[in-house]
Design a protein that fits this description.
The complex is a heterodimer of chains A (about 400) and B (about 250). Chain A is an alpha+beta fold and about 400 residues long. Chain A has 15 helices and 12 strands. In chain A, strand 6 and strand 7 form a beta hairpin. Chain B has about 250 residues and is an alpha+beta fold. Chain B is globular and about 50 Å long. Classes of the chains: A alpha+beta (about 400), B alpha+beta (about 250).
């Protein structure tokens, strides 16, 4: 208690230096809170986009599709009418959607423009792409009609708008080619920039018709209940399809399919190391301040030692000063970091220009996100680093002989 | 032998040599003209099939085709998956018609080298203009035997960069002037495609290749066999067949 009072008095007595140390810790802590919030927001965003737009949590495909994927083997399909009742009866399946994605050329005024087409049953998209939400203008396509919802970036690139017609040329599931004309009935803003610039959506039945796929589909995406492990559900679906249809399919989870997410998980550990160095950097200010204080208060240290204060107590005194500055600085840093994170968590950070042309499942607008546990860990981490940093100069103070210290008078 | 006789023999020998060289130089172009003439019909109608074998198995497409002179041709696919699709070639222009598309697709430039229905044939191969000497210079290489037939071996070098195959080496039958074998290469000498006649038939005193095999060397384990089932030559055709209006019909 006595040491705490002395420590507080010393902090107040060197207020400017204390403030400088506190600000260094606050800035470091705030930076780490923001960095972690940004990284977490990015990981969450990519995970959501991969699940919604690319693979679902579980993806079902023809067993041979992946081997020949580079050749766009649309003839390697899965039987949607046969698999549909299996998924309806499988416990743990919360949503599923059949899709066909293929490359095509938009033929306009004698030249071809590459794009991607996603054929989907909009009735099943609710658990995946919220088509109504991303629709900027127009309406949804109607099954059986040659209609399309085009990404805003693609429509802009091709100078097309609602009501315009576009003829697409593509390869078919019979390994031939086909061309078909679609009317644009909606313009959508896909959150992923690369999709926005290259995708157009059409009803599943029209994709099947144009590609000569009968009732087959290229892939079925599945979402799992929160209570079910994705790996377990994938194995269950795989076995159920094999038992009911006698056909082996490829059933994989989104983490098995996306190396990038595994890399992001590894990268998040790297950020803890970066955070450590950030705090060390912030703590150098504390080390420097404490060293200056020790030199300035050499006479006082000598007096305290002459009055019987032990070296360990002197160390604890300076440790306490560092801990108090660290606690207050880190608290301020955490509060400011959380406030900034919350603000950008609502309005988002717009990276449209920076991400244009980058083919990653990352949204153009990112929303930083953090949680209380992460904030608490960062806070404790910051205080501990700041406190421990004072041990280095404090040890010097503890070794000072009273007689030698009094020479500084 | 007297001195005068010797001179006469030498003169005759030189004249023969001169004319044989002359004949030889002309022969290469004459061979090509004869080859083109053999391949060109005033009009023709044929039905046939294209069987493509690749890593995914065999795919068969059937077609009907009409041609007129060296420049006009129309192909209509009749197999179930491609039924109603058409390719029209007029001089320098190539159009695709698809029943589900509301407009014709005009192919030009590099697009003409795209594969027709996933086969080893390009649009240019299917409908190419038969005016070889306008596009290539020709040189005589040697003679060879292919499929037990004596052939001239000729090398064609493109006059411009607009052709699909800058260098062609062809084996032309000495009697019938059909091309028994061909090797098509890039300007740097890289082999692009190989062509071979598998079967011929005599129709109206002309020997016609009715089964040919073409392999796109750039595609692994892939080849296409094109077979003509029915061929009618020099028949009356409606001139409107080769117009854009009739294509949309």
């Amino acid at each position: 208690m006595k040491l705490t009072s002395i420590a507080m008095r010393n902090i107040m007595r060197n207020l400017r230096r204390s403030l400088l140390s506190g600000i260094a810790i606050a800035v470091s802590t705030m930076s780490i809170v923001l960095l972690f919030a940004f990284v977490q927001g990015m990981i969450d965003d990519m995970a959501m986009n991969i699940k919604s737009y690319s693979t679902g949590e579980i993806r079902i495909r023809n067993e041979a599709y992946s081997e020949y994927e580079r050749y766009s083997p649309l003839h390697l399909t899965v039987d949607w009418p046969e698999i549909l009742p299996i998924l309806e009866q499988t416990p743990g399946v919360s949503a599923f959607v059949p899709r066909i994605q293929f490359a095509a050329s938009a033929y306009m005024n004698g030249s071809n423009h590459g794009l991607m087409v996603m054929g989907s049953d909009f009735n099943y998209e609710d658990g995946f792409i919220d088509v109504r939400e991303i629709l900027r203008e127009g309406r949804l396509c109607e099954p059986g009609k040659n209609e399309t919802i085009m990404g805003a970036g693609l429509a802009n690139r091709l100078h097309l708008t609602i009501g315009d017609k576009v003829t697409l040329l593509t390869n078919t599931a019979t390994r031939g080619s086909n061309a078909f004309t679609l009317t644009i009935v909606g313009i959508a803003v896909f959150p992923v920039g690369a999709m926005n610039a290259s995708y157009t959506m059409i009803p599943l039945d029209r994709a099947q018709y144009f590609l000569h796929m009968d009732s087959e589909v290229q892939e079925i995406l599945v979402m799992a209940d929160d209570s079910v492990k994705e790996n377990t559900l994938a194995s269950l679906i795989d076995q159920s399809i094999l038992d009911h249809t006698g056909v082996q399919t490829e059933v994989k989870t989104w983490k098995q399919l996306n190396d990038l997410m595994t890399l992001m998980d590894i990268a998040s550990y790297a950020y803890y190391v970066i955070a450590f160095f950030f705090f060390i950097l912030g703590s150098t200010v504390i080390i420097n301040t404490t060293m200056m204080v020790i030199f300035e208060r050499m006479r006082e240290i000598g007096t305290l030692a002459a009055m019987g204060m032990h070296g360990k107590e002197l160390t604890r005194l300076f440790f306490l000063e560092g801990a108090i500055i660290g606690a207050i600085g880190a608290a301020i840093g955490v509060i400011v970091g959380v406030v900034i994170t919350s603000y950008f968590g609502i309005i988002g950070l717009d990276f449209t220009d920076a991400l244009s042309g980058i083919d990653m499942e990352m949204s153009s607008v990112l929303y930083p996100r953090t949680d209380y546990w992460r904030v608490l860990i960062i806070y404790v981490y910051a205080v501990a680093t700041a406190s421990l940093a004072t041990l280095i100069p404090s040890r010097r103070a503890s070794k000072i002989e009273p007689v030698e210290a009094l020479r500084y008078v | 032998m007297s001195r005068t006789n010797k001179k006469q023999v030498i003169m005759v020998f030189m004249i023969v040599l001169f004319f044989s060289n002359l004949i030889h130089a002309m022969t290469a172009e004459d061979i090509i003209r004869a080859m083109d003439q053999n391949e060109n019909y005033a009009t023709s109608y044929m039905t046939g099939s294209i069987a493509t074998t690749d890593r995914f198995g065999e795919k068969i497409t059937t077609f009907k085709a009409w041609s007129q002179g060296a420049y006009d041709s129309l192909i209509e696919f009749t197999s179930l998956a491609e039924r109603g699709q058409k390719i029209l070639r007029n001089k320098g222009e190539l159009y695709l018609y698809y029943p589900d598309a509301e407009e014709l697709i005009r192919l030009q430039g590099a697009a003409l080298r795209q594969s027709v229905l996933g086969s080893d044939l390009s649009y240019e191969d299917m409908t190419g203009e038969k005016n070889t000497l306008d596009m290539y210079t020709v040189s005589f290489d040697n003679e060879d035997i292919v499929h037990n037939q004596a052939c001239y071996v000729l090398t064609l070098t493109a006059k411009s960069r607009t052709v699909a195959y800058p260098v062609q080496k062809i084996w032309v039958d000495k009697e019938t002037y059909i091309v028994h074998k061909g090797q098509y290469s890039s300007a740097t000498g890289r082999l692009l495609k190989e062509f071979e006649v598998l079967e011929t038939k005599v129709i109206d005193n002309r020997t016609i290749p009715v089964k040919t095999k073409i392999s796109d060397i750039l595609k692994k384990d892939s080849y296409t066999v094109m077979a003509i089932e029915e061929l009618q030559i020099d028949i009356p055709l409606d001139a409107n067949i080769f117009t854009l209006q009739s294509l949309m019909w």
